[in-house]
Design a protein that fits this description.
Elements: H1 2-8, H2 22-43, E1 48-51, E2 54-57, H3 59-74, E3 78-80, E4 83-85, H4 92-100, H5 103-119, H6 127-141, H7 155-171, H8 175-195, H9 226-235, E5 240-244, H10 251-254, E6 258-261, E7 272-275, H11 276-280, E8 300-302, E9 306-308
Parallel strand pairs: 5-6, 5-7
Antiparallel strand pairs: 1-2, 3-4, 7-9, 8-9
Length: 309
């Protein structure tokens, strides 16, 4: 719709694809809306029930939206670039996209934005993926729940369309441009291979050696390394361990080790397992409650999110 409105302001040109009329646009929007909701309703197995005092299809969906709205209104503890907050930052998701996206893909996407904006003079439809991606990002920038780039993931397939426009344009330019396209593709493959098997905790080159100083939570530490931790503790024949990490409760089920939760203000002797989010202090007060551990050299790094002391 945004692309259509923008294109309407331009003078008509016979060489450009014809703009749909208002009625046709509304028909397309209706079909898209009905199809989208049908997909959602299918995921909820065509359930029907009460939500908000009304009998609705997929009541779980509507209750979920209400829960998210309430959660967003209350805010959420979060961390960004050395700052703690509960109300979020408007620039959180731009930063997250900048450091959690492979640089070759990001460069291609930025080139695609320029290519689509320029090509829109002859084909207004090129504005559509840009409008969609901008909508996702702008809505994300108003959110008070800032805990992961995952909350704006829908912008990636939209920007991928734009990136493909740039790559195709480069490929048609000549041999040097084709070599550049091939180099970007090879760089992307190297990035993906280098991230395996820790894709969730991966950051690009802009984050440097200490991404935990930029952001944590589901960008880096979401309890994904607990099975590795259990195996490490078993291999070292550790009988008891103090823990300050996401997901450490699962260690009681994954191993025979005695798990002792480490509370803020406590000092532990012996073995300690701590994850980056807890060391960072995002969810504890005072925020430096576990910083004393940083005075010690970890015995091992387990995955990309956990330290063993």
């Amino acid at each position: 719709a945004a692309a259509w409105l923008a294109a309407r302001r331009r003078l008509p040109d016979e060489s450009r694809p014809a703009l749909p009329g208002t009625r046709q646009l509304l028909e397309h929007a209706l079909v898209a809306g009905v199809t989208g909701f049908a997909v959602v309703w299918t995921a909820y197995r065509f359930s029907v029930g009460v939500a908000g005092g009304l009998l609705l299809p997929a009541p779980e969906f509507w209750r979920g939206l209400a829960d998210v709205a309430q959660h967003n209104g209350e805010g959420h503890p979060s961390f960004l670039l050395g700052e703690y907050g509960r109300d979020g930052w408007w620039y959180y998701f731009p930063v997250a996209v900048a450091v959690k996206t492979p640089l070759p893909w990001l460069l291609a996407a930025l080139a695609g934005v320029l290519a689509c904006a320029r090509g829109a003079r002859s084909d207004w439809r090129l504005l559509a993926p840009l409008a969609g991606a901008a909508t996702v990002l702008l809505f994300g920038m108003t959110a008070r729940i800032n805990i992961g780039v995952r909350h704006v993931l829908p912008l990636y397939p939209l920007l991928a369309v734009a990136a493909s426009v740039a790559i195709v344009a480069l490929w048609r330019t000549g041999v040097p441009a084709r070599a550049l396209s091939a180099a970007l593709a090879a760089w992307l493959v190297v990035n993906v291979a280098g991230a395996h098997p820790d894709h969730l905790a991966w950051f690009n080159e802009l984050a440097g050696d200490h991404p935990e100083r930029i952001m944590v939570d589901s960008n880096l530490d979401w309890g994904q390394d607990m099975l590795r931790v259990a195996r490490e503790l078993e291999a070292r024949k550790i009988e008891a361990v103090a823990t300050a990490c996401f997901g450490c409760q699962s260690l009681a089920y994954l191993s025979t080790v005695q798990v002792i939760p480490l509370r803020p203000g406590m000092r532990a002797e012996g073995w300690v397992v701590a994850s980056e989010t807890q060391l960072n202090g995002s969810y504890v007060k005072p925020h430096d409650a576990f910083r004393w551990l940083l005075e010690h050299e970890p015995v091992a790094r387990i995955g990309r999110s956990v330290r063993l002391y």
